[in-house]
Amino acid sequence: MGVLFISHSSQDNDRATRVRDWLHGQGWREVFLDLDAEQGLAPGHRWQDELKRAGERCAAVLVLISPSWLASFWCRTEFLLADQLGKRIFPIFVAPTPFDDLPIELKAKFQIADISVPEKEADGFQRLAVGLRRAGLDPDSFDWPPPGDPNRSVFRGLKALDAEDAAVFFGRDAAITKGLDDLRQMRGGAPERVLVILGASGAGKSSFLRAGLVSRLKRDEDSFRVLPIVRPGRAALTGPEGLQASLASAGARTAIAQPRDLIEAMATLRRAAAPRPDGGAQSGAAKPATFILPVDQAEELFAPENAEGAAFCSVVAGALEGDSDVLLLLTIRSDAYGRLQADPSFGTAQQRLFNLPAVPAGSLKEVIEGPAKLARPPLAVEPELTQALLADLSSADALPLLAFTLERLLTDYGRDSKLTVADYREKLGGIAGAIQAGVAAAVGPWPDPHRLALARRLFIPALVQIDHDGVRRRIASRGDVPAEAQGLAAAFVEQRILIADRRTVDGTEIETLEVAHEAILRQWPTLAAWIAEEGEALAVLAGVRSAARDWRAHQDDAAWLVHRDERLGAAQATLAREDFAGASDPAMRDYIVACRAAERRATRGRRRLQGVAAVLALGLIAGLGWAGWTYRAALGSLLTAYERYRPFVTPPATLAAAAAGTSFQDCGKGANDCPVMLVVPAGQFMMGSPDAERGRFPREGPVHPDAVRRFALSKFDVTVGEWTACVRGGGCPAIQQPDWAGDSSPVVNVSWNDAEAYARWLSQMTGVAYRLPSEAEWEYAARGQTTLAAPHRVYPWGDALGTDNADCQGCGSAWDARQAAPVGSFKPNAFGLYDMAGEVWQWAQDCVQKDYTAPLWCGMHSMRGGAWDTPPGSVRSAYRGGYIDYNRSPDQGMRIARTI
Description:
14% strand, alpha/beta, 29 helices, 5-stranded parallel β-sheet
């Protein structure tokens, strides 16, 4: 239910005690009153800190209004802060007080219960009780077992907990309160329209959404109306858990093709909502309920097989813009957030990021023992078992592994309503043994090679995929699984390692299979080894799926036929494999046929170009004059691309499967024709600098979480030699370099316009997307840290400047304040990138901002990293510079990025 916080004047202590006693008598046990001997302020503690902590974790604030309350600056400040934080507020007159004297923020927004005189007390308390219950703050906890499911297990294994499991969802109280506060702030006028629950695989995002937030939002019917949860799957609009199914379950129209369709559906639901009888102290009573559209596993919107993902994003983003009483609540993996951020529809929607880290180690005990107490009959968990489980859990996949282990312990050894450390250690074999026991039960404890080969055919490629966001599970139809593996699939379903479901797709009911949780892909060693062995083939398959979807979405436009040369050969070889042949659908096969035809046309075109070039060369000798020279330059550029770059380009599918830190070149290896690139892993980080960082500027704040998808960044600054190749190719201007600059020096005197020209030229030569990095990508790459929990560091190497770590004015190197050092003169950072601090300023793609909340100011673009002639404060990872787009300076260079 959450804590009820009583805000009152010290002059009204007796009345506050009366309210607390009434709440206790009605069943509300978690009440914070500062003067309470047990739950109030403890002697010896700082009262400001205690009040702040109580306010942060409380679910609602009861404001006791009296003339003394009005006269207290601190009381009014407490109310305004609670309102700003999105808390539920219940004002109560506890003494006669002129209504007109109340703050406008209170009397304009809230209905007020009145217990100021004895004859009003009964009615006032009744109205307060009604308001609390309508807000979802019922004194009774969630029912267990849920109605209609008396045998439901308290341990759900790898299945996500749903709304009916709210009673057994433990360990996330503070996060739940924060999430509800965020949504109330957004409903109350905050600019964000999308709450993004961001967390790593295994953090428990789905359970947090369903059992944590949705279960409580459904109780607060005055403020929110929650639509059935959407899971995009393979069809985000028309699928069995798509948008149209969600609206149909709620009683609205189901044909959704445009934003106005969704807006009209919401209007229909509002008209159909029965008005609630008046009464009860409630907050925001005059404002209609805000619709919440929850989307679970939003990364599936961007999966290659989801042909409706782009349409879903367009429809929902348009509806958010057109209907101010709709909010989007979604979960997404941290490594996939960049896809959402870059989506052309959602890219402009204001988002609020909600970081959901792993369950704190101190809360895992509650996750184990809390549900056990609710079992019928109660389940006894040996204290030694709890300690053993906590000791065996590592940070990786701790929550799903714990859930799977507890479910198996209960199912296999809990018939006497006891779970013991002996069962866990000796019979199950510990945490590691839980998954292995399930596998052994399905495959056999001593599987023969045929049985193991069959398991490999079952999982790969049907149930596993590798794409831009790494290794993920895949929803497959039974038809995707080889016929000979169907019996083995049923055995894995029985062991709860796979989940079987029935779904209606395009009017046809099909049975689907899915790995129960992505932790299985990492924690079953044999499967992890198979995935590693087939990583390149799985990445090739995902690349074909994605490309085929884009090709179809653009009406079979030949410009979207991106498989050619070696990449096309790899795709054909993969799809021709017997074990992978069934993984392709007609659209993929049509796409490959079209690519082959385009390749044949391109080969004929190259031959014609070579012939024309030869004729032009002869013509030049014969005196064709200026026209011959003009056409020769254009054709020469094309021939250079096909001879020096495109044969060496690393396919995107190969990079998607490559390990972080992998180096590659999209030209001849070791040549100066293009930069050495490095694969940067996906991750998340805290962007900006905290207030206490020495040398900080306001434009570096506010500090905020950000996520970056996998991309490639040049290992070094672009060098003079690499720039010269662009000049020779006609893509870049010839720029005067200082006397100290050699081929291995970073190119300088580069304006933002010059850097953009280099990116365009390299993209034309290679046929892949080169660009300048975004500010978020640059700072993430400079910090070399992949998690929000990583300690904040001032410089890429640590908090202290040190000596000889970089080239700047006072960094202690041989080049300080004299010139830029040759690239690679200092140690690389944690990602393997060189010279991310000092040497030369590096242009970013982004326009300049006053700070991260301010509008973009284009015409000037951001620069990062500091330079050889700037002070140490400018080489901090958070420092943000900027300059006019056409400006050139001897300390301005560049670094190049590639989308993968």
